[in-house]
């Protein structure tokens, strides 16, 4: 009999894994929950290469905004921008850019839904019951769904991670703010360039994107501590780049993860952010999830054994995932330097910025 796979989650990883299982020899139920997929994310060459193996890349090219350079600047006390380093991406121009999450998910969803064996439920799963023979999922309305295998793609704070890991109590959460502007001014100022701007209370990451077919600018503000809000800019020239009317959305991202856990228990396999919570400082969370998906896709080409799939995945992917998490944490600490160390950081970026970026991206962007 055809095995039933249940995917919990309606975000990027859920639809990505659904696309992988489409056309394979399984029936798939996907429980979408109340998905909110806001803003854009960077696709790096490793992610682009992986995405190319999952979907027809031509379906997404028109909403891909290429990035050709990374500029690092400091906002001084008079709110004037001082350039610390500008890095031109000579070799990676074709494959580094930004893409709206909504659009990316739409394309993955279309791919997944080309499978006749997939059913979507707009349902939030509250309980996972691991019986001897099968698993049962209970949603918030008390409906029960029987399944053979569960893929938990419901994020760092979802029911799947709590089931597999036990609790989230070892994870501290850090506040990060996101916003989007569809004004022309910031888009024209950021075209083709990703900007990292140091401020006394944290740092901004600003880059152009395309949202709902409109030119837009994506903003992230990472405060150096959870009490800081995105700063109100007053200088006229800087307001062109960071307008005052931005509507900031607060996200909580995992931080200080002093845990070593599994990603699999009783036929519940964690995927995406649920499996490997990753700080966003290297913008690799989604890119690594794409690499994970390609790994699973290649495995499933020749083998339907799901337990073996999980075992091979853990053996081959965990090391890289942990390394990226560690690197992301270190980069975050450097970007968020305060007091004396921030002067050292700025001096280092001024003198060695290009080499530093080269070193980081050459290692991380390699597939
Ligand atoms: C500020 C920031 C910037 C980032 N920038 C980048 C970037 O530039 N490049 C990059 O590659 N990555 C980036 N990332 C990482 C990337 O966004 C994540 O890796 C990716 O969104 C993770 O997707 P996910 O589907 O695993 O988890 P989530 O996005 O958390 O999605 C989980 C989904 O599960 C649903 N859900 C939860 N509980 C249930 C339930 N009980 N039942 C049913 N559904 C449920 C939720 O509604 C949600 O839709 C960034 C992250 C942040 C926070």
Structure description:
The chain has helices spanning 12-21, 45-52, 101-113, 159-165, 184-190, 236-241, 285-302, 306-335, 339-364; strands at residues 3-8, 26-31, 40-43, 64-66, 69-75, 81-88, 97-100, 118-121, 125-130, 135-139, 144-147, 149-152, 172-181, 193-199, 202-211, 214-223, 249-255, 264-265, 268-270. It is of the alpha/beta class and 367 residues long. The chain has nine helices and 19 strands. α1 runs parallel beside α3. It folds into two domains: 3-39 and 101-171 and 258-330, FAD/NAD(P)-binding domain (3-Layer(bba) Sandwich); 57-98 and 172-255 and 332-364, D-Amino Acid Oxidase, Chain A, domain 2. A hairpin with a 2-residue loop joins β14 and β15 (202-211). It is globular. It starts with a strand and ends with a helix. The strands form four sheets. Strands 6-5-14-15-16-13-17 form a seven-stranded mixed β-sheet. Strands 8-2-1-12-19-18 form a six-stranded mixed β-sheet, with helices on both faces. A three-stranded antiparallel β-sheet has the order 3-7-4. The protein binds flavin-adenine dinucleotide.
């Amino acid at each position: 009999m055809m095995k039933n796979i249940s995917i919990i989650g309606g975000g990027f990883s859920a639809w990505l894994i659904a696309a992988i299982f489409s056309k394979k020899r399984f029936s798939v139920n996907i429980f979408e929950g109340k998905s909110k997929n806001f803003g854009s994310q960077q696709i790096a060459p490793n992610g682009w290469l992986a995405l190319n193996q999952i979907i027809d890349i031509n379906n997404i090219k028109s909403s891909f905004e290429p990035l050709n350079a990374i500029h690092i600047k400091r906002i001084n006390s008079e709110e004037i921008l001082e350039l610390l380093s500008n890095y031109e991406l000579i070799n990676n121009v074709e494959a580094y850019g930004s893409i709206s999450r909504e659009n990316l998910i739409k394309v993955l969803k279309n791919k997944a839904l080309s499978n006749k064996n997939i059913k979507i439920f707009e349902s939030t799963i509250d309980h996972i019951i691991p019986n001897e023979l099968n698993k049962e999922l209970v949603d918030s309305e008390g409906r029960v769904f029987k399944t053979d295998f569960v893929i938990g793609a419901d994020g760092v704070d979802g029911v799947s991670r709590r089931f597999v890991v036990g609790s989230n109590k070892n994870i501290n959460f850090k506040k990060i703010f996101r916003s989007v502007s569809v004004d022309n001014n910031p888009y024209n100022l950021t075209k083709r360039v990703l900007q990292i701007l140091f401020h006394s209370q944290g740092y901004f990451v600003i880059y152009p994107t395309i949202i709902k077919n409109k030119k837009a600018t994506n903003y992230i503000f990472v405060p150096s501590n959870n009490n800081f809000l995105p700063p109100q800019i007053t200088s006229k020239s800087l307001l062109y780049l960071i307008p005052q009317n931005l509507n900031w959305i607060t996200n909580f991202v995992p931080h200080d993860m002093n845990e070593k856990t599994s990603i699999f228990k009783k036929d519940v396999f964690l995927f995406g952010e649920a499996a490997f919570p990753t700080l966003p400082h290297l913008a690799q969370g989604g890119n690594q999830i794409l690499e994970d998906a390609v790994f699973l896709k290649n495995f499933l080409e020749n083998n339907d054994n799901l337990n073996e799939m999980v075992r091979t995945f853990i053996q081959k992917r965990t090391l890289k995932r942990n390394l990226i998490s560690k690197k992301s944490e270190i980069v975050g600490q450097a970007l968020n330097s305060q007091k004396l160390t921030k002067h050292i950081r700025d001096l280092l970026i001024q003198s060695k910025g290009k080499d530093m970026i080269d070193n980081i991206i050459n290692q991380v962007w390699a597939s």
